[in-house]
Design the sequence.
């Protein structure tokens, strides 16, 4: 079983990388992708917990934004983490998430919701990428909402008046950075329409031209119709279809391996990286 897209406490997942590896083993997963938002901070701990039977695909879910302000998540995997341009771009995004969070907190304060940036940062593991889920956790801790889900519904969604974006490269820039670092680029849940505005089917062309290797087709936030449409796009461009859970620990309902990638698709993807970087013990 191949699950190429999961999160740990190095970003907005609730399991430490070590816990995630242990759960993946217990679940019978054979290939696990660690894709924390805009960081590689969880990689070393994940490697340390690895045992025979499970292979690790290290990567990052890179936040991107189109020229017209649509949020896109680009999965980058099997790249060289010593690549300066890519690491610099990720650091810039992580950095800009702090000022952005202060702005969101300020907007909430304006309508009388009492929350501080310190309370948000208290929810963050050391060195982790800051995100709205940590603000959600702070609101839960103060009993302002019951769950992350409710926090997003009431205050934090992309269409909310409290929403503020952060710096992010364009999808094409993100793809080029990943490819130049020797990795593979797969757009994550492109038709997850409940999350906000989504890219048009036409916009895949320039991403494929930039070197995009695949599309995450099977994902709980995409309807069967959306998945069918994406499968056609994959065929049209001769790229690769993946499926994955987008597991976040207790932070979301998503269960490990609820959607998976075929071994054929994974073999094709692995072959597109410029070196053999899947970690096996
Ligand atoms: P950010 O990176 O700060 O823009 O926050 C985006 C993250 O929020 C996504 O990666 C999801 O993990 C999380 N998220 C989005 N919608 C929800 C939701 N309804 N419930 C829980 N988590 C969510
Ligand atoms: Fe997330
Ligand atoms: Fe995502
Ligand atoms: Zn994700």
Sequence:
């Amino acid at each position: 079983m191949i699950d190429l897209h999961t999160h740990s406490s190095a970003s907005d997942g609730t399991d430490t990388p070590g816990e995630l590896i242990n759960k993946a083993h217990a679940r019978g997963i054979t290939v696990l992708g660690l894709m924390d938002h805009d960081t590689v901070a969880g990689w070393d701990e994940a490697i340390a917990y690895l045992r025979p039977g499970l292979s690790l695909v290290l990567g990052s879910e890179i936040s991107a934004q189109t020229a017209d302000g649509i949020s896109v998540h680009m999965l980058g995997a099997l790249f060289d983490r010593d690549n300066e341009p890519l690491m610099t771009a990720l650091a810039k995004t992580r950095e800009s998430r702090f000022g952005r969070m202060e702005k969101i907190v300020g907007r909430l304060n304006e309508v009388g919701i009492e929350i501080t940036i310190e309370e948000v940062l208290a929810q963050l593991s050391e060195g982790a990428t800051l995100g709205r889920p940590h603000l959600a956790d702070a609101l839960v801790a103060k009993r302002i909402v019951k769950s992350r889900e409710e926090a997003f519904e009431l205050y934090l969604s992309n269409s909310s008046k409290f929403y503020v974006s952060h710096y992010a490269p364009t999808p094409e820039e993100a793809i080029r950075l990943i490819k130049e670092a020797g990795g593979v680029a797969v757009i994550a849940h492109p038709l997850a329409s409940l999350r906000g505005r989504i890219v048009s089917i036409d916009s895949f062309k320039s991403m494929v031209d930039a070197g995009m290797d695949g599309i995450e087709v099977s994902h709980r936030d995409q309807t069967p119709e959306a998945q069918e449409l994406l499968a056609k796009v994959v065929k049209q461009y001769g790229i690769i279809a993946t499926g994955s859970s987008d597991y976040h620990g207790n932070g979301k309902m998503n269960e490990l391996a609820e959607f998976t990638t075929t071994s054929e698709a994974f073999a094709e993807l692995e072959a597109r990286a410029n070196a053999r970087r899947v970690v096996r013990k």
Q: What stands out?
A: The chain has a mean pLDDT of 97. The radius of gyration is 18 Å. The longest helix spans residues 84-110. Residues 5, 7, 35, 61, 188, 246 surround zinc ion (ligand 4) (CB under 6 Å).
